[in-house]
Structure formats: structure tokens, C-alpha cells
Amino acid sequence: MSNDARFTVLDTIRRQLAADPDVETLIDDSPEEAYARIPRNYQRTAKLNREETLELFYDRLRDYDSELVFTDEAGIANAVAHAMREANETLLLVPAGVPQEWLPQNDVEVRRDFDLPLQPLEEPRVVLTPCTVAIAMSGTIILEHGDEQGRRAATLLPDHHICVLWRDQVVETIAEALQRITHRTSPITTIAGPSATSDIEMTRIRGVHGPRRLTAIIL
């Protein structure tokens, strides 16, 4: 951000604060008190039952052109192998902390990311990760980056992301999801289907900012 742009942003914030009748008392508040005073008039708790929440999440994923695979924990490796065959790929990138039992035993070369340099990190076209939480209302999957869910680069460079999630990780609202993010200092990535944009002449283009394919393995 240039200095001019930074000045414009800060000046806009100052003008908005100056127009707020409570700004003087806000200045005297502690950060915790100021945070507690933020109006929260949006939906913060679930209104749907469990089945309705899951059906809404599945519907959002399908609407975003995601691929859904339903299995149990013992079926993860077979589901990953099937997704690899469907993509005609044999090289799989996995973060250091992904369980060994999730990985196919045949016909797939697994490359674990122990802080790989850029070139070997870029070669695999498929990455496998778990996630922290998923939001039915928006069809969003949230990753907290670390040993188990990988580096951000490792989940953005490959063309195909296979993500394992449990049904009990699906919540209805964004507010519920944020409460499940525990590693507050870790970067997070939010995924709502395959990466796509329609910025140019309303033509949908996949893979602009991340993987063009998303396979959700749901347990």
C-alpha cells in the first residue's frame, strides 16, 4: 500500500470516528470494553436443526461446483485415491501432520511438506488437508495453517484441493465458526468452492487465486 493510499484509508477512519457521538467515550475504553461495545445485530446462533444445517452446507458446496464424497474414517484413503484417479494425477502433496492412514498405498506418490523449497512445492497438482470448521450459511471451509493443515502456499499452488472434514465440524453461522478457531496467531484461509472470479466481463474463470477443483471428503 502506498503512503497516499494509507493516508486516504486512515483519514476516512478518522472522519467516521469524528462523526460517531460515542467516540470520546470509546477512546477512554480499554480494548476489551471497546470490543464488547461493538453492535452485533447479525445472526450469531443456529436456527436450523442438525440435518437442515448439513443439507444447507452440501447445497452450497454443490452450487459452487465442489465435489462431495461421503465415507467414514476408514474410507479416507480410498476416497483420496479415487479423487486422484478422477483427476488423472499421481503426485500428492500433504502437510507434515496429515495422518499416514489417510494416504493411498498404491499408484500415488506422496510428497510431505517439511518446509519444501518452492520448486518441489509447486510440482504436485493435488493437495490433501483437513480443516478446522465449515460454515453452512456461506458454504465456506476454514483452514488454520500449521503442521496439520499446511502452509498457505501449499493449499493455494496446487490445482486440486482435497479436504477432509467431519460432519460435526459444520456449523450454521460465521459467528459459531469463529468461536472454533483456536490458534488465534495462525494464518487462516477461507475456501468457498473452487477458486473462481467473474470480474472480467462477467465471464467465470476458475483458478485465479487458488485451486480450480475442490473435493470435500465428508465423514
Sheet of most strands: 6 strands, parallel
Give the H and E element order.
HHHHEHEEHEEEHEEHEEEE
Could you report the average pLDDT, rounded to the nearest whole number?
88
Category by helix and strand content? alpha/beta
Adjacency order of strands in the biggest sheet: 1-12-7-4-2-3
Helix content: 25-40%
| DSSP strand tally | 12
The low-confidence runs, each spanning 5 or more residues with pLDDT under 50, are none
Shape: globular
Radius of gyration: 21 Å
Beginning-to-end CA distance, first to last residue = 42 Å
Q: Count helical runs.
A: 8
The proportion of strand residues reads 15-25%
Task: Describe this structure as you would to a colleague.
There is one protein chain. With 219 residues, this protein is of the alpha/beta class. It has eight helices and twelve strands. The strands form three sheets. Strands 1-12-7-4-2-3 form a six-stranded parallel beta sheet, sandwiched between helices. The protein has a four-stranded mixed beta sheet with strand order 8-5-6-9. A hairpin with a 4-residue loop joins strand 5 (133-135) and strand 6 (140-144). The longest helix has 16 residues, at 3-18. The radius of gyration is 21 Å and the shape is globular. It starts with a helix and ends with a strand.
